[in-house]
Write a structure and sequence with these properties.
3-stranded antiparallel β-sheet, binds zinc ion, alpha+beta, globular, 6 strands
């Protein structure tokens, strides 16, 4: 699939709030709560007290999160899961 087709697909899916399929460890991720396979990706800041004291929270690491479009159950990952929908 070409670059522009991926961009258009990304925009259409985001606007329609369908969510994307992701894989981690070579397997499709499905929600452990409801079994849905569609998620939206996000980030969560991992604050440490040392950086917070100095007001430098921005420089702390962040975790990658994916949130189920059906029940909002959220998974946390250290490395970004692969977006399977855009690879098709
Ligand atoms: Zn769910």
């Amino acid at each position: 699939m070409g670059f522009w087709k991926r961009i258009i697909r990304y925009v259409v899916i985001t606007i329609n709030e369908q969510g994307f399929e992701y894989e981690a460890g070579g397997k499709l991720i499905s929600c452990s709560q409801c079994g849905n396979t569609r998620f939206f990706k996000g980030k969560a800041q991992l604050n440490t007290k040392d950086m917070t004291i100095w007001g430098l929270d921005y420089f702390d690491k962040s975790a990658k999160t994916i949130c189920c479009t059906q029940c909002s159950f959220t998974y946390w990952f250290g490395k970004s899961p692969v977006n399977r929908t855009l690879l098709k």
